[in-house]
Amino acid sequence: MMESHKIIAVGCDHAGFPYKAAVIEVLTGEGLQVEDFGAHSADSVDYPDFAHPVADMVESGRAALGILLCGSGNGVAITANKHQGVRAAVCWLPELAALARQHNDANIIALPVRFISEETARNTVKAFLSAEFEGGRHARRVGKISCG
């Protein structure tokens, strides 16, 4: 498991808001510090306003990992992936979250709240936290991702 002094950045839009508290509960239960960028209600908002701050935290190294939540997971992932050094993966199963870390060195997961249960969201976050990048042949591939 990740060390307790690590910061995890969390953000969501209105569609992701219903699961945000459950995700934060998992993180704090693991002894992790959470930086919550909102949203703070289910009122309609624009997902980039929450995805960019999470991606900034991960990109700068001020957060070890990020977790984004929205209806499909796609909008926040697309937004986060505009940042250099961010590898955001849409994950709807724990196995995908583990593989995203192990093979793709994902540092942000995007949860599609409208398509998964709260229990699946919790388990997906746990899998993401417990997995580690395997390096090796995967490092070569990850090294080819950046356009910069």
Radius of gyration: 14 Å
Any idea of the CATH topology? Ribose 5-phosphate Isomerase B, Chain: A
Structural class of the secondary elements? alpha/beta
Please indicate the count of domains: 1
Give the class-level CATH name: Alpha Beta
CATH architecture: 3-Layer(aba) Sandwich
Strand content: 15-25%
Q: Termini separation (Å)?
A: 32 Å
Q: How many H/I helical runs?
A: 6
Let me know the number of strands. Answer: 5
Which strands sit side by side, in order, in the main sheet?
2-1-3-5-4
Low-confidence stretches: none
Largest sheet: 5 strands, parallel
List the keywords.
5 strands; 6 helices; 5-stranded parallel beta sheet; 148 residues; globular; Ribose 5-phosphate Isomerase B, Chain: A
Structure commentary:
With 148 residues, the protein is of the alpha/beta class. The protein has 6 helices and 5 strands; from the N terminus they run E-H-E-H-E-H-E-H-E-H-H. It has a 5-stranded parallel β-sheet, sandwiched between helices. Helix 4 links the parallel strand 4 (88-90) and strand 5 (108-112). The longest helix has 13 residues, at 17-29. It starts with 6 loop residues before the first strand and ends in a 6-residue tail after the last helix. The mean pLDDT is 93.
